[in-house]
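RETRY 2/3 - previous attempt timed out on the joint model. Re-submitting the same 612-residue input unchanged.
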Amino acid sequence: MSGSPVANADAAEVARLQEIARQIRLEVIKAVYIARAGHLGGPLSAADMLAALYFNVMRIRPDEPSWPDRDRFILSKGHSSIGLYATMALRGYFPVAELATFDAAHSRLQGHPDMTRLPGLDMSSGSLGMGISAGMGMALGARLTGRGGRTYVMLGDGECQEGEVWEAAMAAARYGLDNLVAIVDHNKLQQYGWPGDGPDGRTPPEAPGELVAKWSAFGWRVLEADGHDVADILRVLALAADGDGRPVAIVAHTVKGKGVSYMEGHYYWHTRAIKPDEYAIAMADLGEPLPAGEGEPR
Amino acid sequence: MTLPMGRPMREIFGETVAELANDDPRIYMLDGDVGTSTRADIFEKAHPDRYLQMGIAEQNMFGVAAGLATMGLIPFISTFVSFAVVRPLDQIRVLIAQTGLNVKITPGYAGLFTGQTGMSHIIVDDMSIMRAMPGMITVSPADDVEAREVLRWAAAYEGPCYVRLVRDATQRLFGDDYRFELGKAVTVREGHDVALISTGSQTPRVVDAADLLAADGIDAHVVHVPTIKPLDVAAIVAAAERTGRVITVEEHSVIGGLGGAVAEALSEHRPTKVNRIGLQDLYPQSGPNDALLEIYGLSAPRVADQVRLILRPA
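RETRY 2/3 succeeded.
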């Protein structure tokens, strides 16, 4: 159980994960384009971390999603659901074609994750601040039942404004749950934002260094990563696996809307339908330009 | 004749969950720093390694309970009703009710008996809120005997439930051979003039009220409804058919709780005039238990007074 969970962080593996992250972003864009609804900025900022977790780090069995000894993942920032669905589909939990049902009636791919509908989802989410508490329960439960496995919880940086996050931070540190890893997708934007002098007249959810200081103050071991550099993500996730009795918070510096030129860093791409011309640009940005004069049917 | 006193439900809580944990290693107690009040401390003495102190952080406590349930454990929750319903309501909704996870919401300090703490600690509408939540079973036991039975049922039931328990000793309604059945009402007194339908520790006081009414020639039928949801509609319809007149009595708001549930059921299935005795859209004050029952019209004599007035208006 101890030691690095990262099998092969060589150049070829990094390249493989980068390509998977690109595929995740493509599937996110396609699904939101088809659904004419959905969040974009958050799934795109999380894609590289989701690729690293689901395709390298986590011990999981897509063909046996309830395997008791698996690592667990909770997308506490549940509005980034399509990013998780795209990752799970590519990983083999369900057919990639099913992503076209995202947000549709009767779909297993609900707007926010519903664990009662889709096997492989370890927790329902959508109301912010809750995933870290449920993750604490899983990590504590794994210890109490003598199971191995780690619990990863991905939070948004704006989500850290919820008080429950800090209740959980307090309690998980008291229990010394070093099998609990919180990953904060620090993309520096939230849905509307606080007034300020940053991009679009907004100021980021936290000041520089604020998240590191807060999680440290609550007794967590804090690691920072470039959330778009797969090698760096693998590096910190390997460090996180070497428990020292403290839960681990990874502050991952990211860009909201990463990978699509006109979405990067703009708060209004938090959630938005994509127009046909915007779709063509996004696909081209992600290396899959549409044939001239053709748009994807919708 | 007055029903005898039983033991405090909170002691039954600590003892019973501890006993259940003897046989089931999956059972844990999560406490929001009130274990000496809810008597979860009785559980801690028996199973110190399965007593999980969560501190003064109820939202997190309910989320942790959901996470523990995904690992196959059975968390019981120790806090006050006032901090078990409205404060973590969204956590209950999203992480417990919507997931169907096996969490036992078993707070103490239901109703007016909160140790003279006042309106911040008295929640008048917990049954209204919990029964309106899709997927949430809502149970309000009458006495120590039924509380023990309900806790045994809750441990065996696979899924979330809400069981409200009373802090102080209340009157005993049932004999030791009583067996709780989810969703079943219990006729505790037979009569023909009016059906008095009650729940929780109010029911024994309604039985006493029925004795007082008998002296006035009013023959009351008394039905105890421990399970607010799922409601025993058939039993309520039968009581209405038998008497033609229904009065609900609850130590709770008259809005949306037992009175609301009975009125809904009869309106749909057997339209019958329903009067609701209980707390009238107000926030109660602090005071000794007996004083509060008098002030809010829930002692046996005051219930009898109100029933007389309803049946025989001046």
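Residues 11-285 of chain A form a domain with the Rossmann fold fold (CATH 3.40.50.970). Closing ticket.
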